[in-house]
Design brief:
The chain has 125 residues and is mainly alpha-helical. The radius of gyration is 13 Å and the shape is globular. 74% of the residues lie in helices and 0% in strands. The chain contains 7 helices and no strands.
């Protein structure tokens, strides 16, 4: 599975976990039924789950005129994924993590989601 697709599936799994209070294994199974299992997808989901409180705190520190509690689930999930990649995954250049999050925001978010995601993540690097 290509990394862009793995990120999309990881987003879907993390979003389901946040929305429906299901466990990680079940969420991943829901999104990879046809695609098979992927190491990068698992690493991304597991990493976000493991470092969630640290990631959330880091995001909140970088929000301007906004609170973490006010973030929509789409933006919150995408920021968590990209923040994990920036801070904990040395294989992925920060700019790649930002660009991928912006692209996913254009697909799953509102009209201004991509700009918002880009602004917050750019401040974080």
């Amino acid at each position: 599975m290509k990394r862009r697709l793995a990120r999309e599936k990881a987003f879907q799994a993390l979003f389901q976990m946040d929305s429906n209070d299901i466990n990680m294994e079940e969420a991943i199974q829901h999104v990879v039924e046809e695609s098979g299992n992927d190491v990068f997808l698992n690493q991304l989901v597991e990493g976000v789950v493991e470092y969630k409180s640290e990631i959330d705190h880091w995001i909140e520190e970088n929000l301007e005129h906004w609170t973490f509690a006010r973030l929509a689930r789409v933006e919150k999930t995408l920021l968590r994924m990209a923040a994990y990649e920036i801070k904990f995954n040395e294989e992925v250049p920060s700019q790649v993590a930002i660009n991928e999050a912006v692209e996913l925001a254009k697909i799953f978010g509102e009209d201004q989601s991509g700009k918002f995601i880009n602004g917050v993540l750019s401040k974080m690097v």
